[in-house]
Design a protein that fits this description.
heterodimer, A: 113 residues, alpha+beta, Arc Repressor Mutant, subunit A, 5 helices, B: 148 residues, mainly alpha, 2 domains, Tscrpt_reg_PadR_N (chain A), WH_DNA-bd_sf (chain A), WH-like_DNA-bd_sf (chain A), PadR family transcriptional regulator (chain A)
Chain lengths: 113, 148
């Protein structure tokens, strides 16, 4: 793994799952939609598959849930939804993130003026 | 089975082989998730040419990376298993100075304290009566008590 790839992997670790929760906080999404939105936003469009293990873990931890729905065309879709545990985790993370980010910005000298 | 179906089957077989080390339940779940993704992506884009299927699979990424992600998805975030840089001992330079400073400070405090005690004993001893056995061994009383 190149240094750049290792850096972005390290940066995503620990934050990406909250991006999932935040997307699902807006509306429920089925796998393909969720994975494409996330990978599009985070520049991971050639590793969409790596999100499924993450979704699986969030499901096991009870932060998201899934329900099947019929689609107007094609196979039924499995929609991912945020649970109340997931909502609480997201709220908590938002607070932590702001504090963490501003601390790092202060140290790096990257505060927005 | 069409040639495009064969591409999908081969891809999932590669994932299955890469995931041989995962618990069976997790492996099956991962394969089911990926199969579902491919089915829906195909249905939505009407992708039927070989190139179109390859695009869907390329976007999913290579099987080893997907399984590596599954492997690290334990219930707590883990530090990536990057090779550690060669161990470097912390430079020992500052450490003895710190210890010496502390030792000197302690000795200084003890000396000051003893000095204070000696003065206190001498003052309370007074000039008009022999000193009663003092609580603290003071050099002045030690010299008085010698002799047969």
């Amino acid at each position: 793994m190149s240094d750049d790839a290792a850096l972005t992997t390290a940066l995503r670790r620990g934050t990406i799952e909250y991006c999932v929760l935040a997307l699902l906080d807006e509306r429920e999404l089925y796998g393909v939609e969720l994975v494409q939105q996330l990978s599009g936003a985070l520049g991971m469009s050639t590793s969409e598959g790596t999100m499924y293990p993450l979704l699986s873990r969030l499901r096991r931890n009870g932060r998201i849930a899934t329900t099947w729905r019929e689609a107007p065309a094609g196979p039924p879709r499995r929609y991912y939804t945020l649970t109340s545990d997931g909502e609480a985790a997201l709220t908590h993370f938002r607070t932590e993130w702001v504090a963490f980010r501003s601390g790092v910005d202060r140290i790096l000298g990257t505060e927005s003026k | 089975m069409t040639q495009t179906d064969q591409l999908v089957v081969d891809y999932l077989a590669r994932v299955g082989r890469a995931a041989a080390g995962l618990p069976a339940g997790r492996r099956e779940e991962l394969l089911a998730d990926l199969r579902e993704h491919i089915d829906i992506a195909r249905a939505e884009s009407g992708a039927e040419t070989e190139a179109e299927i390859r695009t869907i699979l390329d976007r999913l990424g290579d099987p080893e990376s997907i399984v590596a992600a599954a492997d690290t998805q334990t219930d707590l975030p883990r530090v990536p298993a990057a090779p550690l840089p060669p161990y470097q001992a912390a430079p020992p330079r500052r450490f003895p100075w710190l210890v010496l400073t502390i030792v000197a400070a302690v000795i200084g405090t003890v000396i000051l304290f003893c000095g204070f005690v000696m003065f206190a004993v001498r003052d309370s001893g007074g000039a008009d009566q022999p000193a009663p056995a003092p609580e603290y061994p003071a050099p002045t009383t030690v010299t008085v008590s010698t002799g047969p």
